[in-house]
Amino acid sequence: MYAFDLARPSSIAEALKALQEDEAQPLAGGQTLVPTLKARLAAPSKLVSLRGIKEMQGICHDDAGRIYIGAATTHATVAREVAKDYPGLAALAGQIGDPAVRNRGTIGGSLANNDPSACYPAAALGSGATIVTNAREIPADDFFEGMFTTALEEDELIIAVRFPVPKVSAYAKFAQPASRFALTGVFVAQFDDGVRVAVTGASEDGVFRWSEAEDALGRDFSADAVAGLSVPAEGMIGDLHGTPEYRAHLVGVMTRRAVAAAG
Known about the structure:
It is built from 10 helices and 14 strands. By secondary structure, it is of the alpha+beta class. Strand 4 and strand 5 form a beta hairpin.
């Protein structure tokens, strides 16, 4: 690990000011960044810790009944505090990593990093969430731009994530046993105006919506409705854990499991 300075701002304004310095980088839960630093794959001159910013923590509801989650809120807190109002999201958060990861990692850090096998991108995209930054509000459909790539500008911080609450939802994940990342994970959410299906862990382009499954489930919200559907293997991830064909197969399997769990 290379040497760096550490700033501990207590407000969003202080954090943004500290991040204006050359090579400064935000530090959320550190579950990805710290191992990267240990491996000397990154060398920021300063880390700006977001852990002490109270206005980026906690969960509440807005006037429209949507769930507003501060970006510095940990996975464990989400799993615990939204279990009644949004059980599908709570169950997803409770499956991330292990207890140590869930008590350090944050929803904002996960979305900003946009790991192609992370769970939260599927929840945000599958829910039609809105990512709130210091500068604007970004619909989830416009936020994810590919593997480890998002619509965030260099001077933007995720402040919160706003989730509309569906009628029913569920997340089904086929986990890599060591990391608990998703070899393939599918988040399904049924709203009054339709169904959203978001897939993580499978595609080389990162999280994506499976529109064919959404259309079928919009007509018949049952596992049988997607039994004959499949995604092409082209563009799926292939590695020592599974071939592209295997992951394409898992997309269908996990979708059926998620629908069955939700229904």
